[in-house]
Amino acid sequence: MAYETVIGLEVHAQLNTKSKIFCASSAAFGGGPNEHTCTVDLGLPGVLPVLNRQVIEYTLRLGLAVGAEIAPVCRFARKHYFYPDLPKGYQISQYEEPICSGGSVHFVTREGRDVNVNLTRIHMEEDAGKLIHGDELGDPNHSYSDLNRAGVPLLEIVSEPELRNPEDAESYMRKLRTLVRYLGISDGNMQEGSLRCDANISLRPEDSEKFGEKVEIKNMNSFRNLRRALEFEEKRQREILDAGGVIHQETRLWDESAGVTRGMRSKEYAHDYRYFPDPDLVPLTVDAEWLDEVRAQMPELPDAKSKRFQDDYGLPRYDAEVLTSEKELAAYFDRVVAATGKEQAKAASNWVMGDVLRLLNEKKIAIEECPVSPERLAEMLSLIDDGTISGKIAKTVFDQVAESGKSPEAIVEEKGLRQITDTSAIESVVEDVIASNPEEVEAYRGGKTKLMGFFVGQVMKATGGKANPKALQEILGEKLGG
Ligand code: ADP
Ligand code: MG
Question: How far does residue 276's CA lie from ligand 2's centre (Å)?
């Protein structure tokens, strides 16, 4: 039977504030066990939480970026469960009255399809601590808790069940990362766990209106693993349904090395958590003035930038999407174009998406550390544009700029890479090549025109690749044709 896949994601983004959400302990990653703790995050009796203003501002930024409705008044709630990573016995979260409702995230697929995913809500909550099991320490009878992460601020971003395949789920997650990084509210690092997600997935017969029973998958620490886990689960559910079986709601864990999901526990329901409003925290009020202040500080967002790159720079959509996927990459590109002028935007885009990204990949560095500055790249583009060097020689120049940090001009002079545009100089090389390859010349004149490539190659070899390709083609055609 044909099924439609239905996916909804619950994403947790760790906010990069200095201190935790309800106390002054450091929210920084790392630190010795329990070094970043105080009486509040340790859950000692009698202490009171105090909400961190920066957390609210960061949340408002994301809320505005996705066009969510921002509640003028919202509340915190206690979510109860018993586990040694949670010293109070409850997590402070939001339940019935979250700060943001609605809004949407837009992305463009590889094939250029627009997808808009509606959000259910975004709410603030605190993270739990971490357990360290003694078996890794040669102490299999004990487990230890490290509460450095307890109380670190998180945003939970819940999507409607509107994603229809694993690849879109990955793109959605990537776009969320792009957004939080643009907004400067989270580093969005999946490996370090600052961006995590629980993926809900179900299948339904293609003609059915009603959703199937869903399974929730946890423990995916990369975009690739998110997609793989969903693909596995899609297939697993299809096989069960095809065999006449039923899917039971449950929580499953992704096992990366085995490439499978495994049942972990049956699903828990909201009533299991005994939610109620936290009496220690007053309701949070966000007035229009505060919202305006945050709005005024918003950076240009990825979709607006992509549109500007297309409308203003005349770039194809694909280029614009790649170049705006990271704020710093887009800033680099803006600087190249500022130096070359918009007429060179497409050429600049080819270089940035090609050689610049390749260089970053090879050196495993970020664009901010790129050894070829935007201005250097712009200089090189103008050397190509005015015919000083060919596009091919430019590849060599680029690598040398990267290596030496010298200017493209200096490298061209130093290494004698200036393109030969002087036709008489090219002519004399062409004549030499013709004279020393009589058999090929005869074959060419006899109709084997494919040999043109051979002659071009010979001249390029003799000139160290510096002959102006266009002039060379013309001269060769003329001399050989006769
Ligand atoms: P629960 O009550 O189990 O917490 P919610 O309705 O709150 O479920 O949804 C949690 C997440 O699961 C949301 O991201 C939502 O989009 C997604 N979801 C809900 N129903 C389904 C379904 N049938 N198939 C896939 N995902 C679903
Ligand atoms: Mg729910």
Answer: 15
Give me the mean pLDDT over the 385-391 stretch.
88
According to the model, what pLDDT value does residue 482 have?
Answer: 54
Q: How many other CB atoms sit within 10 Å of the CB of residue 385?
A: 14
Q: At what angle do helices 452-463 and 438-445 cross, to 10 degrees?
A: 140
Whether 194 and 14 have beta carbons less than 8 Å apart is answered as: yes
Task: Delimit the domains of the chain by residue range.
Answer: 3-291, 300-415, 423-481
Nearest ligand 1 atom to alpha carbon 160: 16
The predicted model scores a pTM of 0.89
Closest CA to 233 of 3, 23, 409: 3
Ligand 2 centroid to 278 CA: how many Å?
19
Mean pLDDT calculated for residue range 271-277: 92
What is the distance in A from the centroid of ligand 1 to the CA of 7? Answer: 8
> In this predicted model, what pLDDT tens digit does every residue of 292-315 receive, in sequence order?
999 999 999 999 999 999 999 999
Average pLDDT over residues 201-216: 95
Mean pLDDT across the chain: 94
Residue 409 Cβ < 6 Å to ligand 1: no
Q: Which residues of 252-290 are buried (b: 16+ CB within 10 A; e: fewer)?
A: bbbeeeeeebeeeeeeeeeeebebeebeebeebebeeee
Verify whether ligand 1 is closer than 6 Å to residue 159 (CB atom): yes
The pLDDT of residue 111 is 87
Residue nearest to atom 19 of ligand 1 (CA): 161
* Alpha helix ranges (H) inside 341-422: 345-351, 357-363, 374-385, 391-404, 408-415
Which CATH number applies to 423-481? 1.10.10.410
Of 68, 69, 51, the C-alpha closest to 15 is 51
- Summarize the confidence of residues 360-376 as an average pLDDT: 96
